[in-house]
Write a structure and sequence with these properties.
241 residues, alpha+beta, disordered C terminus, Alpha-Beta Plaits, four-stranded antiparallel beta sheet, 2 domains
């Protein structure tokens, strides 16, 4: 009896990818479970990373041909009988998950502070400008320059917030679902987006326009994907059996 790792599930009508690593396709209840033999559970960090990369590569290859519902890695089963028992118990939930993500892929959208971003040169020059009739080295001029720099920083911070709110709203409007990432002080936007095929071009155009605006505000915008919908799989935990 060969132990198995379950990587994800797809519909029985979805073809197998020819560019994926060798794997087993276990059919049950209208589903196809994507599996590989389990020699042993990962014991070292290197083995865990290698296994996770292979897990992702298989799901990415399958996602190019149709919907695939990832399961949390590693989900191990003692053999096909144990896997069939699991699929009989959880098949309805897996089918609901496939229906939820049908025709869509995951994209990641991040808007982050650029390391070391400072006021643009033009803004700095304006802050350093002399007030009429005030000597450049006077105490009053020093205080005035400080006030102007604070005002410019406040204006820039407000512009960043406005852009982040607008970008997040527009991107979420193009997605079937949007899920925020864990809060981080260096990220103004961090979204996982479940985007149907009809919304992909508009999302890319939104990101391209946003990247140009972000550059002027000392921000970096990155759009990644398409990915298998890890964030929207619901991961009903595949019990080890």
């Amino acid at each position: 009896m060969t132990a198995l790792i379950l990587h994800g599930l797809t519909d029985a009508a979805t073809p197998a990818p020819v560019d994926a690593a060798p794997h087993l396709r276990v059919r049950a209840g209208g589903l196809v479970a994507l599996c590989t033999p389990l020699e042993a559970m990962p014991q070292t960090e290197e083995e865990a990373v290698s296994g996770a990369l292979a897990h992702n590569a298989l799901l990415v290859a399958q996602a190019r041909l149709g919907d695939v519902l990832p399961v949390r890695f590693p989900a191990g089963f003692s053999g096909e009988a144990a896997l069939h028992t699991h699929l009989a118990a959880e098949g309805a939930r897996y089918r609901a998950g496939l229906a939820r993500i049908g025709g869509a892929h995951e994209y990641g959208l991040r808007l982050a502070l650029r390391p070391g971003a400072a006021l643009p040169a033009g803004a700095r020059d304006a802050a350093d400008g002399k007030e009429a009739g005030t000597p450049a080295n006077s105490g009053r001029a020093f205080l005035e320059r400080g006030r102007r720099r604070r005002d410019l920083r406040a204006e820039r911070a407000a512009a960043r917030v406005r852009m982040a709110e607008r970008l997040a709203t527009e991107a979420a409007g193009l997605a079937r679902e949007a899920m925020p990432g864990a809060p981080r002080t260096d990220r103004l936007v961090d979204l996982a987006l479940l985007v149907p095929a009809s919304g992909v071009d508009a999302l890319r155009a939104c990101a391209a326009a946003g990247a140009r605006e972000a550059a002027g505000l000392g921000l970096d915008l990155a759009l990644s994907g398409p990915w298998p919908p890890y964030s929207f799989a619901g991961h009903g935990e595949a019990a080890h059996g």
